[in-house]
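[User]
Um, tokens okay?
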Amino acid sequence: MLTLYSCSSCSAPVRRLTGSDTREVLCANCTDSGVDAMRALVTAQANESLERQLARFDGAGGYLSASLSTNPTAKWERAAVAAVDELRTSLTRGRISRGGLVLIGPAGIGKTRAAIAICRAVGQFDPAGVSVSSEADLLAPQIPPWELPQHIRRTVAGKRCVLVDDIGSVARPTDQVMSAWKFLLDFLRAADHPTLLIVTTNRQTWAEPGGLADWMGAQSVSRLREIATMGTTGWTDHRTGHDHEQWKAQLNGGRR
């Protein structure tokens, strides 16, 4: 039997089964409003968390205002916009996709700034899904090697956009670095949600001497190359205004 009650929020009539719990009766409109308000609160908290994460990561770099262009012309930025759009579409449609961008080149050319801009673009629609760390944070030297997989898992589990900055700098034995990177890439490949991996490094090739394969291992590079595009943010050192001439010549000569 139905009984007529009044909505606790707007006093609109609401029919409920007689004898049901009526301490808080909400009409359909107020229920939807409450859900929307809760979503807004969760989103606001996620945005605040992302901003704190970026602020801790950025330090004195001044990258917090970094953003992707709405009309990208640089090759790396076009690739970044496409990767972010693919992630957004995958989340909307409930499908699994894997994407990545490896930003390479000498120090000071804006790789970290670009990576943060990508994270902020993802943060506009999935702030809770962003993980930001340096390689030194992710492969923390103070953590025993047998505990490192669990540390990596805690850092990136459930994250849809993962930034790892400054690859090639952590103070760990080579075998531990290679093992950790293989674990991370396998973990992301097995995720039940779409992922976008953004990495920056001064190492300027995939497999040539001194390249990424020498650091993270051939298996890890093979996995990374399956999902990631390699690009650079230019050759000008923004700290000094001078060009990295050798890097500039390499790029203009079409060599990577």
Summary: The first strand starts at residue 2 and ends at 6. The chain has a mean pLDDT of 83. The two ends are 76 Å apart (CA to CA).
